[in-house]
TrEMBL record, chain A:
UniProt organism field: Aliishimia ponticola
GO process terms (BP): anaerobic respiration; denitrification pathway
Cellular-component GO terms for this entry: plasma membrane
Taxonomic path: Bacteria, Pseudomonadati, Pseudomonadota, Alphaproteobacteria, Rhodobacterales
Protein name, UniProt field: Cytochrome c-type protein
TM ranges: 21-45
UniProtKB/TrEMBL annotation, chain B:
Highest taxon, organism lineage: Bacteria
Keywords on record: Membrane, Transmembrane, Transmembrane helix
Bilayer-spanning residue ranges: 6-26, 33-52, 64-83
Protein name: Uncharacterized protein
Statement: the UniProt record of this protein carries the keyword Transmembrane: yes
Protein backbone atom coordinates (compact mmCIF):
# COMPACT_ATOMS: atom_id res chain seq x y z
CA UNK A 1 0.00 0.00 0.00
CA UNK A 2 2.80 2.39 0.96
CA UNK A 3 4.76 1.87 -2.27
CA UNK A 4 2.30 3.60 -4.63
CA UNK A 5 1.98 6.51 -2.19
CA UNK A 6 5.77 6.96 -2.08
CA UNK A 7 5.89 6.75 -5.86
CA UNK A 8 3.19 9.41 -6.07
CA UNK A 9 5.16 11.58 -3.66
CA UNK A 10 8.28 11.21 -5.81
CA UNK A 11 6.34 12.15 -8.95
CA UNK A 12 4.83 15.09 -7.06
CA UNK A 13 8.31 16.25 -5.91
CA UNK A 14 9.67 16.04 -9.47
CA UNK A 15 6.60 17.89 -10.81
CA UNK A 16 7.00 20.63 -8.17
CA UNK A 17 10.74 20.89 -8.85
CA UNK A 18 10.03 21.45 -12.56
CA UNK A 19 7.67 24.34 -11.87
CA UNK A 20 9.49 26.00 -8.98
CA UNK A 21 11.46 29.09 -10.05
CA UNK A 22 15.18 28.44 -9.91
CA UNK A 23 17.17 30.27 -7.27
CA UNK A 24 20.64 29.13 -8.24
CA UNK A 25 20.77 29.57 -12.01
CA UNK A 26 20.94 32.90 -13.81
CA UNK A 27 18.67 33.81 -16.74
CA UNK A 28 21.70 33.79 -19.04
CA UNK A 29 22.68 30.29 -17.93
CA UNK A 30 19.15 28.99 -18.50
CA UNK A 31 18.90 30.69 -21.89
CA UNK A 32 22.26 29.37 -23.12
CA UNK A 33 21.62 25.89 -21.73
CA UNK A 34 18.13 25.84 -23.25
CA UNK A 35 19.48 27.06 -26.58
CA UNK A 36 22.18 24.37 -26.67
CA UNK A 37 19.75 21.68 -25.57
CA UNK A 38 17.38 22.86 -28.33
CA UNK A 39 20.09 22.59 -30.98
CA UNK A 40 21.07 19.12 -29.78
CA UNK A 41 17.48 17.93 -29.65
CA UNK A 42 16.53 19.40 -33.03
CA UNK A 43 19.74 18.16 -34.68
CA UNK A 44 19.20 14.68 -33.27
CA UNK A 45 15.57 14.68 -34.35
CA UNK A 46 16.43 15.76 -37.87
CA UNK A 47 19.33 13.31 -38.12
CA UNK A 48 17.05 10.45 -37.07
CA UNK A 49 14.47 11.58 -39.58
CA UNK A 50 17.06 11.56 -42.35
CA UNK A 51 18.11 8.05 -41.35
CA UNK A 52 14.55 6.91 -42.08
CA UNK A 53 14.91 8.33 -45.59
CA UNK A 54 17.68 5.95 -46.63
CA UNK A 55 17.08 3.08 -49.03
CA UNK A 56 18.50 0.62 -46.46
CA UNK A 57 15.89 1.71 -43.92
CA UNK A 58 12.98 1.59 -46.39
CA UNK A 59 13.87 -1.88 -47.64
CA UNK A 60 14.80 -3.36 -44.27
CA UNK A 61 11.28 -4.81 -44.00
CA UNK A 62 10.56 -8.15 -45.63
CA UNK A 63 7.45 -6.79 -47.38
CA UNK A 64 9.50 -4.24 -49.32
CA UNK A 65 11.55 -6.88 -51.17
CA UNK A 66 9.15 -7.13 -54.11
CA UNK A 67 9.02 -3.41 -54.84
CA UNK A 68 12.79 -3.12 -54.35
CA UNK A 69 13.36 -5.79 -57.00
CA UNK A 70 11.04 -4.04 -59.44
CA UNK A 71 12.58 -0.63 -58.80
CA UNK A 72 16.09 -2.02 -59.45
CA UNK A 73 15.04 -2.79 -63.02
CA UNK A 74 14.04 0.79 -63.75
CA UNK A 75 15.76 3.92 -65.02
CA UNK A 76 15.46 5.53 -61.60
CA UNK A 77 17.93 2.95 -60.23
CA UNK A 78 20.46 2.65 -63.06
CA UNK A 79 20.87 5.09 -65.92
CA UNK A 80 23.45 6.71 -68.19
CA UNK A 81 23.78 9.87 -66.07
CA UNK A 82 24.50 8.12 -62.77
CA UNK A 83 21.81 10.02 -60.92
CA UNK A 84 19.69 7.79 -58.70
CA UNK A 85 16.30 8.45 -57.16
CA UNK A 86 15.85 6.34 -54.03
CA UNK A 87 12.53 5.46 -52.34
CA UNK A 88 12.30 8.68 -50.32
CA UNK A 89 12.92 10.88 -53.37
CA UNK A 90 9.58 9.77 -54.81
CA UNK A 91 7.61 8.96 -51.66
CA UNK A 92 8.72 11.58 -49.10
CA UNK A 93 8.01 15.26 -49.74
CA UNK A 94 10.78 17.83 -49.16
CA UNK A 95 8.55 20.44 -47.53
CA UNK A 96 8.61 20.07 -43.74
CA UNK A 97 4.89 19.85 -43.00
CA UNK A 98 4.25 17.34 -45.80
CA UNK A 99 7.38 15.39 -44.89
CA UNK A 100 6.17 15.03 -41.30
CA UNK A 101 2.75 14.01 -42.53
CA UNK A 102 4.28 11.32 -44.77
CA UNK A 103 6.40 10.02 -41.89
CA UNK A 104 3.41 9.80 -39.57
CA UNK A 105 1.31 8.08 -42.23
CA UNK A 106 4.16 5.62 -42.86
CA UNK A 107 3.41 4.09 -39.45
CA UNK A 108 0.79 2.02 -41.29
CA UNK A 109 3.62 0.26 -43.16
CA UNK A 110 5.04 -1.01 -39.85
CA UNK A 111 1.55 -2.08 -38.77
CA UNK A 112 1.01 -4.08 -41.96
CA UNK A 113 4.53 -5.54 -41.77
CA UNK A 114 3.69 -6.87 -38.31
CA UNK A 115 0.30 -8.17 -39.46
CA UNK A 116 1.84 -9.73 -42.57
CA UNK A 117 -0.75 -8.15 -44.87
CA UNK A 118 1.51 -8.48 -47.93
CA UNK A 119 3.95 -11.07 -46.58
CA UNK A 120 3.65 -13.52 -49.51
CA UNK A 121 3.83 -12.88 -53.28
CA UNK A 122 0.16 -13.91 -53.57
CA UNK A 123 -0.95 -11.47 -50.89
CA UNK A 124 1.22 -8.78 -52.46
CA UNK A 125 -0.38 -9.25 -55.90
CA UNK A 126 -3.82 -9.21 -54.31
CA UNK A 127 -3.15 -5.76 -52.82
CA UNK A 128 -0.97 -4.34 -55.58
CA UNK A 129 -3.74 -2.37 -57.29
CA UNK A 130 -5.00 -0.94 -54.00
CA UNK A 131 -1.49 0.13 -52.93
CA UNK A 132 -0.74 1.62 -56.33
CA UNK A 133 -4.05 3.52 -56.32
CA UNK A 134 -3.24 5.04 -52.91
CA UNK A 135 0.07 6.39 -54.23
CA UNK A 136 -1.50 7.61 -57.48
CA UNK A 137 -4.14 9.46 -55.48
CA UNK A 138 -1.48 11.25 -53.43
CA UNK A 139 0.57 12.10 -56.53
CA UNK A 140 -2.40 13.32 -58.56
CA UNK A 141 -3.65 15.44 -55.64
CA UNK A 142 -0.22 17.04 -55.14
CA UNK A 143 0.38 17.65 -58.87
CA UNK A 144 3.19 15.05 -58.76
CA UNK A 145 5.09 17.21 -56.28
CA UNK A 146 7.80 14.65 -55.58
CA UNK A 147 8.48 14.08 -59.31
CA UNK A 148 8.89 17.82 -59.71
CA UNK A 149 11.65 17.98 -57.12
CA UNK A 150 13.88 16.71 -59.95
CA UNK A 151 11.85 17.11 -63.14
CA UNK A 152 10.30 20.33 -64.42
CA UNK A 153 8.73 21.21 -67.75
CA UNK A 154 10.60 24.54 -67.65
CA UNK A 155 13.98 22.78 -67.67
CA UNK A 156 13.15 20.31 -70.46
CA UNK A 157 14.74 20.76 -73.87
CA UNK A 158 12.13 19.27 -76.17
CA UNK A 159 14.53 19.41 -79.13
CA UNK A 160 16.70 16.65 -77.65
CA UNK A 161 13.78 14.50 -76.50
CA UNK A 162 12.24 11.77 -78.66
CA UNK A 163 9.51 13.24 -80.86
CA UNK A 164 6.83 11.21 -79.08
CA UNK A 165 8.03 12.34 -75.64
CA UNK A 166 8.35 15.98 -76.71
CA UNK A 167 4.84 15.95 -78.24
CA UNK A 168 3.31 14.40 -75.14
CA UNK A 169 5.11 16.79 -72.79
CA UNK A 170 3.88 19.74 -74.83
CA UNK A 171 0.38 18.29 -74.71
CA UNK A 172 0.71 17.87 -70.92
CA UNK A 173 1.65 21.55 -70.55
CA UNK A 174 -1.19 22.67 -72.80
CA UNK A 175 -3.85 20.59 -71.07
CA UNK A 176 -2.61 20.93 -67.48
CA UNK A 177 -1.72 17.27 -67.03
CA UNK A 178 0.59 16.04 -64.31
CA UNK A 179 3.47 13.51 -64.40
CA UNK A 180 1.53 10.60 -62.88
CA UNK A 181 -1.19 10.92 -65.54
CA UNK A 182 1.16 9.10 -67.95
CA UNK A 183 3.99 7.64 -65.85
CA UNK A 184 2.09 5.29 -63.52
CA UNK A 185 4.45 2.34 -63.82
CA UNK A 186 7.70 4.28 -63.76
CA UNK A 187 9.22 2.48 -60.76
CA UNK A 188 7.03 -0.54 -60.01
CA UNK A 189 5.15 -3.13 -62.06
CA UNK A 190 1.60 -2.29 -63.07
CA UNK A 191 -1.27 -4.56 -61.99
CA UNK A 192 -3.95 -5.68 -64.45
CA UNK A 193 -6.77 -3.16 -64.77
CA UNK A 194 -4.56 -0.29 -63.68
CA UNK A 195 -5.89 2.17 -66.26
CA UNK A 196 -9.50 1.76 -65.10
CA UNK A 197 -8.37 2.17 -61.49
CA UNK A 198 -6.36 5.27 -62.36
CA UNK A 199 -9.38 6.79 -64.12
CA UNK A 200 -11.44 6.00 -61.03
CA UNK A 201 -8.84 7.79 -58.83
CA UNK A 202 -8.96 10.86 -61.10
CA UNK A 203 -12.77 10.93 -61.10
CA UNK A 204 -12.92 10.55 -57.30
CA UNK A 205 -10.54 13.45 -56.80
CA UNK A 206 -12.41 15.61 -59.33
CA UNK A 207 -15.67 14.84 -57.53
CA UNK A 208 -14.18 15.81 -54.16
CA UNK A 209 -12.87 19.09 -55.63
CA UNK A 210 -16.31 19.83 -57.13
CA UNK A 211 -17.94 19.26 -53.73
CA UNK A 212 -15.50 21.67 -52.03
CA UNK A 213 -16.09 24.26 -54.76
CA UNK A 214 -19.86 23.86 -54.30
CA UNK A 215 -19.49 24.31 -50.53
CA UNK A 216 -17.38 27.45 -50.97
CA UNK A 217 -19.89 28.81 -53.50
CA UNK A 218 -22.75 28.11 -51.07
CA UNK A 219 -20.92 29.92 -48.24
CA UNK A 220 -20.17 32.87 -50.53
CA UNK A 221 -23.77 33.00 -51.70
CA UNK A 222 -25.03 32.84 -48.08
CA UNK A 223 -22.65 35.61 -46.99
CA UNK A 224 -23.59 37.64 -50.04
CA UNK A 225 -27.32 37.33 -49.35
CA UNK A 226 -26.73 38.16 -45.67
CA UNK A 227 -24.98 41.42 -46.43
CA UNK A 228 -27.51 42.53 -48.99
CA UNK B 1 -8.53 4.26 -42.78
CA UNK B 2 -6.40 6.33 -45.14
CA UNK B 3 -8.42 9.49 -44.52
CA UNK B 4 -8.07 8.97 -40.76
CA UNK B 5 -4.31 8.58 -41.23
CA UNK B 6 -4.36 11.65 -43.46
CA UNK B 7 -6.00 13.66 -40.68
CA UNK B 8 -3.62 12.23 -38.07
CA UNK B 9 -0.64 13.08 -40.27
CA UNK B 10 -1.88 16.62 -40.85
CA UNK B 11 -2.36 17.15 -37.10
CA UNK B 12 1.07 15.71 -36.29
CA UNK B 13 2.73 17.81 -38.96
CA UNK B 14 1.07 20.94 -37.60
CA UNK B 15 2.19 20.14 -34.05
CA UNK B 16 5.79 19.64 -35.18
CA UNK B 17 5.58 22.62 -37.53
CA UNK B 18 5.19 26.35 -37.08
CA UNK B 19 1.67 26.36 -35.57
CA UNK B 20 2.71 23.99 -32.77
CA UNK B 21 6.19 25.27 -31.96
CA UNK B 22 5.74 29.01 -32.53
CA UNK B 23 2.25 28.79 -31.05
CA UNK B 24 3.65 27.51 -27.73
CA UNK B 25 6.49 30.06 -27.85
CA UNK B 26 4.10 32.98 -28.41
CA UNK B 27 1.69 31.65 -25.80
CA UNK B 28 4.54 31.67 -23.28
CA UNK B 29 4.89 35.42 -23.81
CA UNK B 30 1.58 36.26 -22.12
CA UNK B 31 -0.47 35.34 -19.05
CA UNK B 32 -3.69 36.26 -20.85
CA UNK B 33 -5.38 33.15 -22.30
CA UNK B 34 -7.30 35.10 -24.94
CA UNK B 35 -4.20 36.90 -26.18
CA UNK B 36 -2.36 33.55 -26.29
CA UNK B 37 -5.18 31.92 -28.25
CA UNK B 38 -5.26 34.82 -30.72
CA UNK B 39 -1.47 34.74 -31.18
CA UNK B 40 -1.49 30.95 -31.66
CA UNK B 41 -4.46 31.17 -34.02
CA UNK B 42 -2.68 33.91 -35.98
CA UNK B 43 0.31 31.64 -36.51
CA UNK B 44 -2.10 28.86 -37.48
CA UNK B 45 -3.62 31.04 -40.19
CA UNK B 46 -0.37 32.52 -41.49
CA UNK B 47 1.81 29.40 -41.52
CA UNK B 48 -0.11 27.49 -44.25
CA UNK B 49 0.07 30.63 -46.37
CA UNK B 50 3.82 30.97 -45.83
CA UNK B 51 4.87 27.33 -45.79
CA UNK B 52 1.94 25.46 -47.35
CA UNK B 53 1.83 24.27 -50.93
CA UNK B 54 5.08 23.56 -52.68
CA UNK B 55 7.86 25.38 -54.47
CA UNK B 56 7.40 23.37 -57.62
CA UNK B 57 3.64 22.93 -57.92
CA UNK B 58 0.66 25.22 -57.55
CA UNK B 59 -1.69 23.02 -55.57
CA UNK B 60 -4.01 25.07 -53.36
CA UNK B 61 -3.89 24.48 -49.61
CA UNK B 62 -6.92 22.44 -48.57
CA UNK B 63 -9.51 23.68 -46.04
CA UNK B 64 -8.52 20.72 -43.84
CA UNK B 65 -4.93 21.98 -43.65
CA UNK B 66 -6.12 25.48 -42.76
CA UNK B 67 -8.54 24.18 -40.15
CA UNK B 68 -6.05 21.85 -38.49
CA UNK B 69 -3.32 24.52 -38.44
CA UNK B 70 -5.74 27.01 -36.85
CA UNK B 71 -6.94 24.61 -34.14
CA UNK B 72 -3.40 23.39 -33.39
CA UNK B 73 -2.16 27.01 -33.25
CA UNK B 74 -4.89 28.04 -30.78
CA UNK B 75 -4.29 24.99 -28.58
CA UNK B 76 -0.52 25.51 -28.70
CA UNK B 77 -0.99 29.15 -27.67
CA UNK B 78 -3.13 28.07 -24.72
CA UNK B 79 -0.58 25.45 -23.68
CA UNK B 80 2.18 28.05 -23.89
CA UNK B 81 0.14 30.42 -21.74
CA UNK B 82 -0.47 27.68 -19.16
CA UNK B 83 3.27 27.00 -19.03
CA UNK B 84 3.86 30.71 -18.42
CA UNK B 85 1.25 30.84 -15.64
CA UNK B 86 2.55 27.69 -13.98
CA UNK B 87 6.24 28.27 -14.40
CA UNK B 88 6.85 32.01 -14.10
CA UNK B 89 6.26 34.46 -11.31
CA UNK B 90 6.03 37.44 -13.65
Amino acid sequence: MSEPTEKRRLIRRIWDAIWTPTAVLSTGFLLIAGFLAGILFWGGFHWTLEMTNTEEFCTSCHTMETNLGEYRETVHYNNHSGVRAICSDCHVPHEWQYKMKAKIMAVKDVYHEVLGTISTPEKYEERRLEMAAAVWKKMKASDSRECRNCHAFEYMDFTIQETRAADNHQKAIDTGMTCIDCHQGIAHDLPPGYLEEYNHVVETLAEATREIDDDVAAIRSYLGSGTE
Amino acid sequence: MLSFLDLLGTIGASILGLPGILGVALGMMTRNLIVAAVLGGGVGVVSPLLLGGSHSTHVPITPLEYGVALVVGVLAGLIGCTIRRRGATV
